[in-house]
Amino acid sequence: MPRMRRTVTLIGLAVLTMLFAIACQGGGSAIKVGSKDFTEQFILGEMYALVLENQGFDVERKLNLGGTPVAQAGLESGQIDLYPEYTGTALLTVLNRPVSSDSQQVYQTVADSYQEKYNLVWLEPAPMNNTQALVMTPEGAKDYNIKTISDMVDQASQLTLIGPPEFEVREDGLPGLKQVYGDFQLEKFIPADPGLRYQALSEGQADVAVAFGTDGEVSAFNLVVLEDNQNFFPPYQVAPVVRQETLDKHPGIRDALNQLAPKLTNETMRRLNYEVSGKKREPAEVAREFLIQEGFLE
Known about the structure:
By secondary structure, this protein is an alpha/beta fold. The protein is 50% helix and 14% strand. The longest helix has 26 residues, at 2-27. The relative contact order is 0.17.
C-alpha cells in the first residue's frame, strides 16, 4: 500500500507539473506588442494593442524598447510579436538597400526581403508618410517666394538650414539633396536636436528646418512643407511587422490591424502627435480617444 500510495503521489505530482507547464505556456500566449522610443511609436503601439484587445486577443505591451536595432532584434528573437515600422527605415537601416522614392516598390522590396530573410510579415501600410521634409514659416516662404525644394536651392546661399547633425552626411540628407537638386551651398547649417529646430525656426535663427512629415508641430505652427519636386526623400509609410509564427497562430491579427491602416494619414498623425508632444497628454489616452472617434472602440 505505501508503494501504491507513493506511485499515486508521483503521478499526481507529474500531472500537476504538466498542468503548471501548460498554464505557463498559456500565460505566454499573449501577443507582445512593441514600439520604438518616440511619440508617434508610443501612439501607434497603443493603437495596435487596443485594436487587438478589442478583438479578444490577450495583449502584452512592450513599448519604448529603443531604436530600430533593438526593436528588430526583439522581433527576430520573439521577445515581441509585432511593432510599427517604417518602409524607408527597413529599406535603408535594416536591409542596407539603396535609396528609392517609389513607395510601392519600397514596400514590396521590404515585404519580400523581410519574409525571405527573417520570416517576418509586413501588413498593409498606412497612407501617412513620416519621411524627412524641409519646412519654413509661412512668412519666410512668402518673403523668399519659396514653394519647392528647387526654389530653396536657387536661393540657398542666403538661407540658414537647421537639422539633425547626421543630415550633413547621410545619403538621404544634404549629400543626396545636392546630387538630385544640384550642388548648392547654404549660408549656414545648424546641427540641432529635434526639439530645438522648431523653436529656432519660429525665433528667426533659421530660415528652413528639417522636419518629419508627421511631426505635430508642422500643423500646429502652420508650417509650409516645401514640395519635394524631384522626389528625393524616400517614403516612410508605417505598417505593423509581425512574426510569421504569430500570424499562423492568430490569423485574425491581419484583418484587425489592416482595417486601421487607411485611417492613419499625415494630418491625423500630426494632430495626434501634437496632442502628446505639444499638449503633454498620455499616448494611451490619445490613442483610445482616436479609436473611439473612428468606431474601433466603444
